[in-house]
């Protein structure tokens, strides 16, 4: 994979249902999302690292007042969506949508619950686009 | 490696004023800045010739995408009649005008200028809530807003982490909301100068006028627990946990210490100035604190030689009720996890030992994002000079106050410490 270690590649990875970060070959530090150089040892020696996508919920919210782009996808007061912070088993955290839970009863969702990554697709301005979501494992 | 930051020479605040904050159909940002500017001129004890202003530093976040207007500097120097004086706009999301204030202080402290105007403005209310929600989300990291995080959503996420760790709930935040309304009631410039009790009466009155069933609530907490009046915005945060969409402007006059007495009988010194940057949510080791605030506080405390115990009053960035609680901990006023208890014990009320957000805060004074940072400093200046009217804090020998401003997910935070020395 000769993709640059950057945000564009992160989102392109989603399209192939892969959660792609980087690992520093010099000091072993791992990063998700990818970044262009290691901010631990500052050596320019990165390689791709695929994350398995298993983790647990750290914090979350159910969004009832939505931005325009999400309103266009049918979300709103009567159809909220959930986003959260997930800690992966590899030890890094990432943000994603949380699906397969009761968005209207967020009090039933438990911090610490095990989750697994999923890569659903949505139509955005006529183009199919994958995004990162997590579902109860 | 780390040396104590310091100013090259003393800088004093000798004037300041804000427009009324609110949603204004017939007024734009220039009108609001004009209001603030004219009142600022009146606030300078010994007067100011506007032509003596040497430079303008302006904070603004959203004019490019909400108003399709960038390059605000010369628009403002023209408005104020001070062309060809230099002007620059600074952007740091909701901390934009704290950055303008900082740039102004640095310009005077360096000796480059003696008389500098700093200001902030924002015009938001003519856009739909969905557009504003989308626009403000741009101040988060690209991975956050592209995931669907909104600003209320970010702080709601932080709230779930705080509640989990410290065994608290959203109802514990009512104390913060009640206090904000109580203080704003005494601030004629506030967007919501009304107590929750008065809002309850207004609702009942309205229903009666429309011959609808008249709602009644046992008390203010019951009102805030009613989803009809206080719906979810981003669970667990509800409408009354959130600052509003606002228009507004504010400006302050900074001068070199050696000429300050020529302008003001009681000049107020910029004693400490701090700023920090912070991580997006997914890189934070601890979601219940803001590392940018801690850095800003470290710098400002070191520069001033003062500590959290010396701060007699503070304005903190309560874009959401949970944020106020966390800031009072990060600034060292209360231990981690104790901020929410302090609010519930009334310690942060106007008559309490540590008055927080006597202006009504962002929640009730309003939050025209680019004007907020300087408006917070203005409140401290007014209080230190005993000019805060009905909301003047009952503290004898009030000398030290602080203003804390936050931008983004806590990506930019500042702390300004003001001190009355004479």
Overview of the structural elements:
- The complex is a heterodimer of chains A (137) and B (422).
- With 137 residues, chain A is mainly beta.
- Chain A folds into two domains: 7-51, no CATH class; 54-136, Beta Barrel (OB fold (Dihydrolipoamide Acetyltransferase, E2P)), CATH 2.40.50.
- Helix content of chain A is 9%, strand content 40%.
- Chain A has two helices and ten strands, in the order αββββαββββββ.
- Chain A has helices at residues 7-15, 68-71; strands at residues 19-24, 30-31, 46-51, 54-63, 81-88, 93-98, 114-118, 121-124, 127-130, 133-136.
- A five-stranded mixed beta barrel of chain A has the order 4-5-6-10-7.
- In chain A, strand 1 (19-24) and strand 2 (30-31) form a beta hairpin.
- The mean pLDDT of chain A is 96.
- In chain B, helix 1 (29-43) packs across helix 3 (72-80) and helix 4 (96-109) packs across helix 16 (369-384).
- Chain B has helices spanning 29-43, 63-67, 72-80, 96-109, 129-137, 142-145, 151-166, 174-184, 196-209, 220-225, 257-260, 291-304, 321-330, 339-344, 361-365, 369-384, and strands at 11-18, 55-59, 87-90, 115-122, 232-235, 237-238, 248-256, 268-277, 313-315, 400-407, 412-419.
- Chain B is α/β, with parallel strands linked by helices and 422 residues long.
- Chain B is built from 16 helices and eleven strands.
- The mean pLDDT of chain B is 97.
- The A-B interface holds A 7, 10-11, 33, 58-71, 77, 80-81, 83-85, 92-97, 106-107, 111, 131-132 and B 128-131, 133-134, 137, 142-150, 152-154, 156-161, 164, 231-237, 280-284, 287.
């Amino acid at each position: 994979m000769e993709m640059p270690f950057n945000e564009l590649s992160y989102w392109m990875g989603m399209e192939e249902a892969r959660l792609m970060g980087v690992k520093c070959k010099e000091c072993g530090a791992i990063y998700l999302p990818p970044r262009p150089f290691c901010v631990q040892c500052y050596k320019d020696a990165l390689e791709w690292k695929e994350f398995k996508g298993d983790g647990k919920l750290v914090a979350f919210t159910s969004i009832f007042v939505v931005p325009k782009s999400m309103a266009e996808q049918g979300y709103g007061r009567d159809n909220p969506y959930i986003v959260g912070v997930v800690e992966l088993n590899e030890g890094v955290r990432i943000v994603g949508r949380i699906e397969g839970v009761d968005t209207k009863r967020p009090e039933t969702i438990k911090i610490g619950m095990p989750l697994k990554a999923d890569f659903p697709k949505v139509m955005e301005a006529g183009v199919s686009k994958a995004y990162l979501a997590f579902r109860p494992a | 490696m780390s040396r104590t930051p310091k100013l090259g020479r003393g800088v004093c605040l000798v004037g300041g004023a804000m427009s009324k904050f609110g949603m204004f159909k017939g007024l734009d940002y220039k009108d609001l800045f004009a209001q603030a500017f004219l009142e600022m001129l009146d606030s300078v004890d010994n007067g100011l010739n506007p032509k003596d202003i040497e430079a303008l530093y302006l904070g603004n976040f959203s004019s490019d995408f909400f108003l399709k207007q960038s390059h605000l500097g010369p628009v403002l120097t023209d408005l104020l009649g001070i062309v060809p004086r230099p002007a620059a706009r600074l952007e740091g999301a909701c901390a934009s005008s704290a950055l303008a204030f900082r740039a102004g202080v640095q310009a005077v402290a360096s000796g480059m200028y003696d008389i500098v105007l700093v200001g902030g403005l924002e015009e938001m209310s003519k856009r739909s809530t969905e557009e504003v929600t989308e626009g403000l989300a741009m101040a988060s990291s690209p991975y956050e807003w592209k995931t669907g995080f909104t600003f209320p959503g970010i702080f709601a996420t932080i709230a779930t982490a705080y509640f989990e760790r410290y065994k608290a709930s959203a109802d514990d935040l009512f104390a913060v909301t009640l206090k904000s309304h109580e203080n704003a009631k005494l601030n004629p410039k506030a967007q919501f100068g009304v107590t929750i009790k008065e809002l309850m009466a207004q609702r009942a009155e309205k229903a009666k006028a429309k011959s609808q069933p008249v709602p009644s609530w046992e008390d203010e907490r019951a009102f805030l627990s009613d989803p009809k009046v206080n719906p979810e915005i981003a669970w667990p945060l509800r409408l009354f946990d959130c600052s509003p969409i606002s228009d507004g402007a504010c400006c302050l006059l900074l001068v070199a210490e050696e000429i300050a007495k020529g302008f003001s009988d009681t000049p107020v010194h910029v004693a400490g100035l701090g700023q920090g940057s912070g991580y997006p949510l997914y890189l934070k080791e601890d979601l219940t604190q803001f590392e940018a605030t801690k850095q800003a506080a470290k710098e400002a405390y070191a520069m001033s030689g003062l500590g959290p115990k010396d701060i007699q009053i503070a304005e903190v960035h309560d874009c959401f009720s949970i944020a106020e609680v966390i800031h009072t901990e990060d600034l060292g006023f209360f231990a981690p996890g104790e901020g929410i208890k302090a609010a519930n014990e009334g310690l942060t009320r106007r008559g309490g030992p540590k008055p927080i957000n006597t202006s009504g805060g962002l929640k009730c004074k309003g939050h025209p994002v680019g004007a907020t940072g300087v408006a917070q400093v203005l409140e401290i200046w007014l209080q230190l000079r005993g000019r805060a009217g009905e909301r003047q804090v009952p503290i004898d020998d009030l000398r030290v106050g602080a203003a804390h401003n936050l931008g983004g997910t806590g990506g930019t935070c500042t702390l300004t410490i003001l001190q009355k020395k004479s």
